[in-house]
């Protein structure tokens, strides 16, 4: 039994077996599916877990509740890694009332065929559990249309809340299983920070404006705990995680450069090395380099969200752009990333297409600020194209030093 406060308990599970989250994102350190119990005059379960973990999950619940019934199930988010156990929970607790919004129940009907024992709530509605009151905050498109958050308040005799816990759904979550401890004050959180950026940039990153809208609804509310559906419970680091979401959703970056390239025989890679060295000699300290065919794109996207500069390069392939670079540019354009500088280069053996294709991606989709002069390399680097690569790296460094875009 893991207790967060006097009335709030953790009932979630860890998944250390899945290789890819949503069939897409690598999970080198696993992932947690977080669910919570509020045990007051009435009992409320907040979100469930992926159905494959149901037996471990129901044992966690029963360890806390014993023979007590559950009065409410709050569904903050309908993705199946959080709603997948609803049907089985109803078999154990047939009188449970499911709390959600209209879009929640539209999806629930489609996923599970559930249409009874429902309590529909709107923004600002409340439900009393006894000493605690749940207040519902609608946060659509963070990152599905039905997403909402639940603010739990306990009230002192003077009517003022003495403690506030935010059950935030996927917001403020991150990849990584929980290794014993649950609350950030109990654990070393160092491994979670970059995994929060990777989680946000790949899953939530397209929805910066809805995230900003959600943060505005929470502005001025003092929070004692944030209980997300993935990763640690935030207590000591609440200011840090909310600031991270604020900055990422405004596409705020730091001075730094991502260089990613595709290469078949090493010629494009050698050009990338020249560009990186030139940018470093011009004063850029934060430089990361990725081979797009070796590194999973989720890590590249993570660092594009972190750093202001991006230089991409690839060979021409089948009279088009090297496949993995084409895929990466499509993934980046799908996230509506703003406030970035872009430089590019390419190589070819007998028909030049890569450089023109990258420019098309930027003109039609990315809309990043073009920086430096693109470099086109025929077969391999020579003195002229080496000098052009140096000039591209220096131009990017000079632009990044100017801070604002």
TrEMBL record:
It holds the Pfam family ODP. In the N-terminal section; belongs to the zinc metallo-hydrolase group 3 family. It comes from Xylanibacter rodentium. This is FprA family A-type flavoprotein. Residues 257-397 form the Flavodoxin-like domain.
């Amino acid at each position: 039994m893991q207790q967060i406060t006097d009335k709030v308990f953790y009932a979630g599970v860890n998944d250390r077996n899945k290789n890819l989250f949503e069939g897409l994102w690598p999970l080198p350190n696993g992932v947690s599916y977080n669910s919570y119990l509020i045990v007051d005059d009435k009992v409320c379960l907040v979100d469930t877990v992926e159905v494959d973990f149901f037996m471990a999950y129901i044992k966690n619940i029963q360890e806390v509740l014993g023979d007590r019934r559950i009065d409410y199930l709050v569904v903050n988010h309908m993705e199946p890694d959080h709603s997948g156990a609803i049907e089985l929970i109803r078999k154990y607790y047939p009188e449970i009332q499911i709390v959600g919004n209209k879009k929640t129940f539209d999806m629930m009907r489609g996923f599970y065929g559930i249409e009874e024992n429902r309590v529909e709530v709107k923004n600002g509605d409340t439900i009393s559990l006894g000493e605690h009151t749940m207040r519902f905050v609608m946060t659509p498109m963070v990152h599905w249309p039905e997403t909402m958050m639940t603010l739990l308040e306990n009230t002192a005799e003077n009517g003022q809340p003495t403690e506030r816990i935010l059950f935030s759904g996927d917001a403020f979550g991150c990849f990584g299983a929980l290794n014993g401890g649950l609350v950030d004050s109990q654990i070393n959180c160092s491994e979670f920070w970059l995994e929060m950026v990777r989680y946000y940039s790949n899953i939530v990153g397209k929805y910066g404006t809805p995230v900003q809208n959600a943060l505005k609804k929470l502005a001025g509310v003092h929070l004692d705990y944030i209980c997300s559906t993935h990763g640690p419970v935030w207590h000591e680091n609440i200011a840090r995680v909310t600031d991270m979401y604020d900055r990422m959703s405004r596409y705020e970056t730091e001075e730094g450069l991502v260089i990613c390239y595709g290469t078949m025989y090493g010629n494009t890679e050698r050009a990338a090395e020249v560009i990186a060295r030139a940018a470093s000699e011009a004063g850029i300290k934060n430089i990361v380099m990725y081979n797009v065919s070796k590194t999973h794109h989720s890590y590249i996207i993570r660092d594009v969200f972190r750093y202001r500069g991006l230089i991409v390069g690839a060979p021409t392939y089948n009279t088009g752009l090297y496949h993995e670079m084409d895929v990466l540019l499509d993934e980046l354009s799908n996230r509506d990333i703003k406030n970035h500088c872009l430089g590019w280069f390419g190589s070819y053996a007998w028909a030049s297409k890569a450089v023109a294709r990258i420019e098309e991606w930027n003109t039609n989709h990315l809309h990043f600020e073009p920086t430096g002069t693109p470099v086109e390399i025929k077969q391999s680097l020579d003195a002229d194209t080496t000098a052009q690569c140096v000039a591209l790296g220096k131009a990017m460094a000079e632009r990044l030093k100017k801070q604002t875009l």
